[in-house]
Design goal:
Length: 185
Amino acid sequence: MTTWADGTAQRIGTAIKEARGNSRTAQWVADRTQELGHPISRTAISEYETGKRKTMPVSDLVVIARALNVPPALLLYPGQPDAAIEYLPGKELCSIDAVQAFAGERSVVDETRESIALLRLARRWRALVADVAALEHAQSLAGDEDDEVMDNLLPGQSYTKRLENTRKERDEVRTAITKLMDPDA
């Protein structure tokens, strides 16, 4: 009888083999992992592919995925978007739902609302940090005169105003994250 863990190992191994294709060997993957700084032997690669190894460290999964130029989630949950995946023992999802559940974008078990909210807020905060950096750069290139023209044409759309609003939202999101992580703060 195949256990859920065995089935998961087999699914990942098959996905590795399919991602490398017929033109690349297990040795090629092993060489790439060496180049990436986390060497994994040809034997280990072959044993993952055949399902002989029943467990795989996350570090190996991440490095093998990078060696193959695919996201790790596509090795964990291949057959996008709708292959049937046993996400948890006895809990089947289509592959895209499994990826979203793994990434915390979708609740499929009894996660707390707070943990899902924390992940969403963390993503929003990261996006706002990038937006602030982009706006600061654009503002430095545009200069004050261009910024004034923009504000006259589209009120509230000057780099200065957008930067001010984005920084404020970033700070509010960070405060919300802090409250979720430590309700006594």
